[in-house]
Design goal:
The chain is α+β, with helices and mostly antiparallel strands and about 270 residues long. Helix content is about 30%, strand content about 40%. It has helices spanning about 20-30, 55-65, 80-90, 155-165, 190-200, 215-225, and strands at about 1-10, 30-40, 45-50, 95-100, 105, 110-115, 125-130, 135-145, 150, 170-175, 180-185, 230-235, 240, 245-250, 255-265. Helix 2 crosses helix 6. Pfam families: YjbQ.
Length: about 270
């Protein structure tokens, strides 16, 4: 089922579209399958992050703006805020795929989908497609260390093998607001380099507006600018991964016991 929604935004705003997505899934009647959400508008972004504290979303917009400030020397001839928003949206992303299980999108209790407005005010268009499909869903636990990069490729492969699906989609979801999923090099040194550079982009520090610990506040931002959901192709019963690639659970707070889900979609 396809649903088109319009959302009124303010400059630098971050309206939640979680209820629109939940409503579309409920209206579709789909019990098992997946949901794809995408945004129109070059100067928008779509984040999966905690929505409980507005100050945390202020931190997110501040950090994106600090790393990608509007400039006057762009090649494009539109307004600096429009061009800057285009860059920010390209980095953050404008689409997401969620598993649908037992008639609900698979999201953590503190997770939501947020439309990030990098220009505005505008009326933005959100597209939601809910698809019914066979779904084999497994959950796994991982004990993380602070700022750790944990290879979970074996667990993902285990679910694919157990499903006996020859050709389909494997979708991995983590439901925490201070962790991420990365498709990256399996080499340990390369993973450490990635985490160190993420920390340089969003340094853990004391001046965040969100008033939990510094690691928690910074972790919310890191989660929003990396992935909480990953989709991979299954071909001939195997994950379509490069020889040097791995699926990695990134811990931005911790140490914590964490949960992630592996859904194999078929049919």
């Amino acid at each position: 089922m396809y649903v088109r929604k319009t959302v009124d935004t303010a400059f630098g705003g971050y309206p939640s579209i979680t209820e629109e997505v939940r409503g579309a899934v409920a209206e579709s009647g789909v019990r098992e399958g997946y949901c794809v959400v995408s945004l129109e508008g070059a100067s928008t972004g779509l984040g999966i992050t905690s929505f409980w504290d507005k100050r945390g979303l202020d931190d997110l917009m501040d950090e994106i703006g600090r790393n990608l400030p509007a400039r006057v020397d762009y090649h494009s001839q539109t307004s600096p805020f429009d061009v800057s928003g285009n860059v920010k949206g390209a980095v953050v992303g404008r689409s997401a795929m969620l598993l649908v299980h037992e008639g609900k999108p698979v999201l953590g209790s503190s997770q939501g989908l947020v439309l990030l407005e990098f220009d505005g005010p505008r009326q933005r268009t959100c597209h939601i497609q809910v698809v019914e499909a066979g779904l084999e869903l497994d959950s796994y636990q991982v004990k993380t260390c602070y700022m750790g990069m944990h290879d979970i490729t074996d667990e993902v492969r285990r679910s694919v093998a157990k499903s006996r699906v020859r050709n389909g989609i494997c979708h991995i979801a983590q439901l925490h607001s201070t962790a991420g999923l990365l498709l990256c090099s399996k080499e340990e040194g390369a993973r450490r380099d990635i985490m160190e550079d993420i920390e340089q982009l969003v340094p853990t520090r004391a001046d965040f507006k969100h008033r939990e610990t510094a690691a928690d506040a910074g972790g919310h931002v890191k989660t929003a600018i990396t992935d909480s959901q990953l989709s991979l192709v299954i071909e001939d019963g195997e994950l379509a991964l490069g020889e040097g690639q791995a699926v990695v659970f990134a811990e931005y707070d911790g140490p914590r016991p964490r949960t992630f889900y592996v859904g194999v979609i078929h049919g």
